[in-house]
Request: fold
Amino acid sequence: MENLDMELGLTHGARGPSVKKLQDYLSQYGYLKKETEPSSLEVFGAEDFPATEVIKAEGEFDEITAEALRRFQAFNHLSETGMLDESTIAQIRQPRCGCPDLAEFATSGRKWATNNLKYAFQNFTSDLSSREIILAIEQAFALWAAETPLNFRRVSMSSSPEIIIRFVTGDHGDGSPFDGPGGVLAHAFFPPTPPNPPAPIQGDTHFDDAETWTVMVPPPGGTFDLVTVAAHEFGHALGLGHSSVTDSLMAPFYGGPHRFLHSDDINGIRSLYDGYQLAHAMWVHGTDIKVEIENNVESLQRYGFFTRIVGKPNTTNWYHFAIPTSVIVDSNRLAVGRAMLRFNTGGSQAVVRDVHIYDGSTRIAAHQSVNLSGNQPFAKFGVPHKPDVVWGIGISIGVRTGTGTPAQRRIDFISAGVDFLP
Reply:
């Protein structure tokens, strides 16, 4: 992080090492180019900014540097002063993705020619168990699978995966070394431009193992949520650039757990891959809910179309929906696209913590620590590999109840559904 120590107040006409550090940073994320080095956009396989100019004199804060800084400030919703002010330095020092910034609602112009993508782990981090890592990566892929025809299947390294996942440190041979704790958290490489075949590194996703990774929400101090960072990086591996929409998953800076797609993310990924073709959908009313631990329920009332449950203070419980499943339609076995829930809680004292999707007794997707509360009119939970249905689909919902009044500890289950694919 020492390379981000820059002098406050740098402006047009300044010279020296601090100016060069600023230029290096702006070059790394696509706002400037150096004559003697490939741009970061070229390293990651993206198109260059039309407005990006070549640095004329390194270490000199000229008008080209000022304009690049203004573009950085505009992208991050800062005052476009062209000066290294306090808010700009604070933004620069935030942990972030190592890929260059492109444009709002940006796609790289690249995409995979197939919807059936394979991924493999070259290695793991020692911060988490292999099972925790695998579940986190599946959950990250599931966000994108829920909105597109893409499906993601884990394979061995010998099975020619499109996406190779690595935990590495420092200079790891891809032209974009990591910088130690803080700073750059991860990066990923864009896919090819069809009909070109993929180069070996395209789609690969690297995490800085100098960071401390977690799957706990909220994350312990000094750690980073692997699901959030992985989902962001997989957006790049699928062809999305960074977005200037602050609340989007594809915004370049890490702001804590973000385990959902913003409409900007959805519009972006669908512009590349479209939505999936729906063959069948089934919903049930909230009155069909089944309670796993009745002793943890303070009250339960079934109304015309929904069930209101008040959990006992400081308890957890699981609730289950069995979805009527047409396994075979017109001689075609259906596949599972995503599960969907409609519910409403009395606030943060009743939280949907986990959502699991089952085919018979086999769990086919696990969305851990989603931590949803309040009004959720259409919460979506993807199934990363979109398997064919074998037995029938069930949705299990883990709810955490805190303290507070009964009204604050209530959850109204309105309905649950599943999209089935041909």
Notes: DSSP finds seven helices and 23 strands in the chain. The longest strand covers residues 410-421. The mean pLDDT is 92. The longest helix spans residues 130-145.
